[in-house]
Amino acid sequence: MTWRDDSMRLRHMLDHAVEAVEMAAGKDRQDLKDDRQFCLAMTRLVEIVGEAAVHVSSEGRQQWSFMPWAEVVGLRNRLIHGYDAVDLDILWDIIQEDLPSLIIDLQRILER
Which of 24, 68, 86, 98 is buried most deeply by CB count within 10 Å? Predict the structure, then answer.
């Protein structure tokens, strides 16, 4: 893969992570339970972050080894294959605690 391919995947990761964080602003954990559309949107946005991560080249993953590739891809797999047992507390914590730092790392990579 080329830098262009990886940068496109990284951009997809960034855009969807930002959208999830922005959409969650002003909401709380209970909204995931009470608002089905919001819950589906959050789940899908996080899935896409992971799906784009799957397609980053092995060279890119090695170059940016500080990124939590296994965790991001593992979450994607869990959300897709374990769709009937998604722990909304964990999903909420990821959106609130993990995505903001992932966004910062992705911005740093893409600025280079």
Answer: 24
Q: Which tens digit of pLDDT belongs to each residue from 12-49?
A: 999 999 999 999 999 999 999 999 999 999 999 999 99
Q: Which residues contact 94 (CB under 8 A, 6 or more apart)?
A: 46, 75
What is the C-alpha separation between 78 and 13, in angstroms, rounded?
17
80-54-17 Cα angle (round to 5): 75
Q: How far apart are CA 15 and CA 19, in angstroms?
A: 6
Active-site residue among 76, 78, 108, 112? 76
Rounded CA-CA distance 106/101 in Å is: 9
**Domain regions of the chain by residue span:** 3-111
81 annotated active-site: yes
Phi then psi for residue 23, to 5 deg, are -65, -30
Q: Where are the alpha helices (DSSP H) in the chain?
A: 3-24, 29-34, 36-54, 58-63, 69-81, 88-93, 99-111
User: Is-catalytic flag, 29?
Assistant: no
